[in-house]
Amino acid sequence: MAALLDAILQCITGAESDTRPTYDEKEALITPPQPRTTEEVAAQVVNAIINAEKGGADLKRTLDNIVGEYGWTEKVAEWVLAKMENALQQAEKLQGPIKKAYDKACEAAVAAEGFVQEHPVFCTVIALGVLIIVAPWVLEVLGFAELGPIEGSFAAAWQARYAGYVPKGSLFSFFQRLGMVWH
Protein backbone atom coordinates (compact mmCIF):
# COMPACT_ATOMS: atom_id res chain seq x y z
CA MET A 1 0.00 0.00 0.00
CA ALA A 2 2.84 2.40 0.85
CA ALA A 3 4.47 1.69 -2.52
CA LEU A 4 1.22 2.55 -4.32
CA LEU A 5 0.87 5.84 -2.46
CA ASP A 6 4.53 6.63 -3.15
CA ALA A 7 4.02 5.98 -6.90
CA ILE A 8 0.94 8.25 -7.00
CA LEU A 9 2.83 10.98 -5.14
CA GLN A 10 5.71 10.74 -7.64
CA CYS A 11 3.28 11.12 -10.57
CA ILE A 12 1.62 14.19 -9.07
CA THR A 13 4.76 16.02 -7.95
CA GLY A 14 7.17 14.76 -10.60
CA ALA A 15 9.82 14.06 -7.98
CA GLU A 16 11.34 10.70 -7.43
CA SER A 17 11.89 9.40 -3.96
CA ASP A 18 15.53 8.95 -3.11
CA THR A 19 16.09 5.30 -2.28
CA ARG A 20 19.85 5.60 -1.84
CA PRO A 21 21.06 5.08 1.71
CA THR A 22 22.30 8.14 3.56
CA TYR A 23 25.43 8.09 5.66
CA ASP A 24 26.17 10.24 8.65
CA GLU A 25 29.90 10.98 8.82
CA LYS A 26 29.95 11.01 12.63
CA GLU A 27 28.00 7.81 12.96
CA ALA A 28 30.36 6.00 10.60
CA LEU A 29 33.30 6.77 12.88
CA ILE A 30 31.61 5.42 15.97
CA THR A 31 31.62 1.67 16.25
CA PRO A 32 29.27 0.33 18.87
CA PRO A 33 31.07 -1.58 21.62
CA GLN A 34 30.65 -5.32 21.53
CA PRO A 35 30.09 -6.41 25.13
CA ARG A 36 32.07 -9.48 26.15
CA THR A 37 31.74 -11.65 29.21
CA THR A 38 34.65 -12.02 31.61
CA GLU A 39 34.93 -15.63 30.48
CA GLU A 40 35.37 -14.52 26.85
CA VAL A 41 37.98 -11.93 27.87
CA ALA A 42 39.87 -14.58 29.87
CA ALA A 43 39.70 -17.05 26.99
CA GLN A 44 41.19 -14.45 24.65
CA VAL A 45 43.93 -13.63 27.19
CA VAL A 46 44.91 -17.29 27.61
CA ASN A 47 44.77 -17.83 23.86
CA ALA A 48 47.10 -14.85 23.34
CA ILE A 49 49.53 -16.17 25.96
CA ILE A 50 49.57 -19.69 24.54
CA ASN A 51 49.90 -18.59 20.91
CA ALA A 52 52.41 -15.78 21.53
CA GLU A 53 55.54 -16.00 19.42
CA LYS A 54 57.51 -13.92 21.91
CA GLY A 55 56.92 -12.53 25.37
CA GLY A 56 57.84 -9.19 26.87
CA ALA A 57 56.39 -5.79 26.00
CA ASP A 58 54.61 -7.03 22.86
CA LEU A 59 52.70 -9.67 24.78
CA LYS A 60 51.87 -7.20 27.56
CA ARG A 61 50.53 -4.71 25.00
CA THR A 62 48.46 -7.45 23.36
CA LEU A 63 47.01 -8.53 26.70
CA ASP A 64 46.20 -4.93 27.67
CA ASN A 65 44.42 -4.45 24.33
CA ILE A 66 42.39 -7.62 24.88
CA VAL A 67 41.35 -6.66 28.40
CA GLY A 68 40.70 -3.05 27.34
CA GLU A 69 38.05 -1.18 29.24
CA TYR A 70 37.16 -4.24 31.32
CA GLY A 71 40.38 -3.95 33.33
CA TRP A 72 42.13 -6.70 35.23
CA THR A 73 39.29 -7.45 37.61
CA GLU A 74 39.19 -10.29 40.09
CA LYS A 75 36.73 -12.23 37.92
CA VAL A 76 38.97 -11.90 34.85
CA ALA A 77 41.92 -13.14 36.93
CA GLU A 78 39.89 -16.11 38.23
CA TRP A 79 38.83 -17.10 34.72
CA VAL A 80 42.38 -16.67 33.36
CA LEU A 81 43.72 -18.88 36.15
CA ALA A 82 41.11 -21.58 35.51
CA LYS A 83 41.67 -21.54 31.75
CA MET A 84 45.46 -21.49 32.18
CA GLU A 85 45.22 -24.54 34.46
CA ASN A 86 43.28 -26.37 31.76
CA ALA A 87 45.83 -25.35 29.13
CA LEU A 88 48.80 -26.44 31.26
CA GLN A 89 47.22 -29.84 31.88
CA GLN A 90 47.68 -30.42 28.14
CA ALA A 91 51.36 -29.42 28.22
CA GLU A 92 52.28 -31.55 25.21
CA LYS A 93 50.31 -29.13 22.98
CA LEU A 94 52.19 -26.04 24.21
CA GLN A 95 54.69 -24.25 21.98
CA GLY A 96 56.78 -21.08 21.87
CA PRO A 97 57.53 -19.00 24.96
CA ILE A 98 54.87 -20.67 27.08
CA LYS A 99 56.49 -24.07 26.40
CA LYS A 100 59.90 -22.70 27.46
CA ALA A 101 58.42 -21.22 30.64
CA TYR A 102 56.60 -24.46 31.43
CA ASP A 103 59.75 -26.54 30.93
CA LYS A 104 61.82 -24.18 33.11
CA ALA A 105 59.18 -24.30 35.85
CA CYS A 106 59.16 -28.11 35.77
CA GLU A 107 62.97 -28.22 35.95
CA ALA A 108 62.97 -25.77 38.86
CA ALA A 109 60.32 -27.81 40.69
CA VAL A 110 62.34 -31.00 40.33
CA ALA A 111 65.53 -29.24 41.47
CA ALA A 112 63.73 -27.56 44.36
CA GLU A 113 62.27 -30.84 45.55
CA GLY A 114 65.72 -32.30 46.10
CA PHE A 115 66.93 -29.09 47.76
CA VAL A 116 63.95 -29.04 50.13
CA GLN A 117 64.60 -32.61 51.22
CA GLU A 118 68.28 -31.87 51.83
CA HIS A 119 67.78 -28.49 53.59
CA PRO A 120 64.34 -28.35 55.30
CA VAL A 121 65.29 -25.71 57.90
CA PHE A 122 66.79 -23.37 55.32
CA CYS A 123 63.68 -23.68 53.13
CA THR A 124 61.43 -22.97 56.13
CA VAL A 125 63.34 -19.77 56.87
CA ILE A 126 63.04 -18.69 53.22
CA ALA A 127 59.31 -19.51 53.17
CA LEU A 128 58.74 -17.47 56.34
CA GLY A 129 60.69 -14.56 54.84
CA VAL A 130 58.58 -14.64 51.70
CA LEU A 131 55.44 -14.87 53.82
CA ILE A 132 56.45 -11.78 55.81
CA ILE A 133 57.05 -9.86 52.58
CA VAL A 134 53.88 -11.03 50.83
CA ALA A 135 51.44 -11.20 53.77
CA PRO A 136 50.63 -7.46 53.94
CA TRP A 137 49.83 -7.43 50.24
CA VAL A 138 47.67 -10.56 50.52
CA LEU A 139 45.79 -9.10 53.49
CA GLU A 140 45.11 -5.91 51.55
CA VAL A 141 43.94 -7.85 48.50
CA LEU A 142 41.53 -9.77 50.74
CA GLY A 143 40.23 -6.45 52.08
CA PHE A 144 41.84 -6.20 55.52
CA ALA A 145 43.00 -2.57 55.58
CA GLU A 146 44.36 -0.17 58.20
CA LEU A 147 40.96 1.36 58.92
CA GLY A 148 38.91 -1.82 58.76
CA PRO A 149 37.47 -4.04 56.03
CA ILE A 150 37.35 -2.50 52.56
CA GLU A 151 33.81 -2.11 51.25
CA GLY A 152 32.83 -4.80 48.73
CA SER A 153 35.82 -7.01 49.54
CA PHE A 154 36.10 -10.56 50.81
CA ALA A 155 36.79 -9.20 54.32
CA ALA A 156 33.61 -7.11 54.24
CA ALA A 157 31.55 -10.12 53.16
CA TRP A 158 33.12 -12.20 55.92
CA GLN A 159 32.40 -9.53 58.53
CA ALA A 160 28.79 -9.28 57.31
CA ARG A 161 28.32 -12.94 58.25
CA TYR A 162 29.06 -11.98 61.86
CA ALA A 163 26.36 -9.27 61.61
CA GLY A 164 28.76 -6.75 63.15
CA TYR A 165 29.58 -8.85 66.23
CA VAL A 166 33.03 -10.29 65.53
CA PRO A 167 34.08 -12.67 68.33
CA LYS A 168 37.29 -11.86 70.16
CA GLY A 169 40.10 -14.19 69.14
CA SER A 170 38.41 -15.30 65.92
CA LEU A 171 40.35 -15.82 62.71
CA PHE A 172 38.66 -12.75 61.23
CA SER A 173 39.79 -10.55 64.14
CA PHE A 174 43.33 -11.95 63.83
CA PHE A 175 43.52 -11.08 60.12
CA GLN A 176 41.98 -7.65 60.72
CA ARG A 177 44.54 -6.91 63.43
CA LEU A 178 47.34 -7.94 61.07
CA GLY A 179 45.86 -5.73 58.35
CA MET A 180 45.80 -2.77 60.72
CA VAL A 181 49.29 -3.30 62.15
CA TRP A 182 51.24 -4.44 59.10
CA HIS A 183 50.64 -1.36 56.94
The main β sheet shows up as: 2 strands, antiparallel
**Contiguous helical run count:** 9
Spatial ordering of strands, largest sheet: 1-2
Give the overall pLDDT as a whole number: 78
> What sequence of helices (H) and strands (E) makes up the elements?
HHHHHHHEEHH
Pfam family, one: Ifi-6-16
Main location: membrane
InterPro entries: IFI6/IFI27-like, IFI6/IFI27-like_sf
Subcellular location: Membrane
What do these coordinates show?
- The structure is a single chain.
- The chain is mainly α and 183 residues long.
- Strands 1-2 form a two-stranded antiparallel ribbon.
- The chain has helices at 2-13, 25-29, 38-51, 57-67, 74-89, 97-118, 120-142, 154-161, 171-181, and strands at residues 144-145, 148-149.
- The mean pLDDT is 78.
- It has nine helices and two strands, in the order αααααααββαα.
- Helix 3 runs antiparallel to helix 4 (57-67) and helix 3 packs across helix 5.
- The longest helix has 23 residues, at 120-142.
- Among the domains are: 35-98, no CATH class; 134-183, no CATH class.
- Belongs to the IFI6/IFI27 family.
- Its main location: membrane.
- One of its GO terms (cellular component) is membrane.
- It is found in: Membrane.
- Keywords: Membrane, Transmembrane, Transmembrane helix.
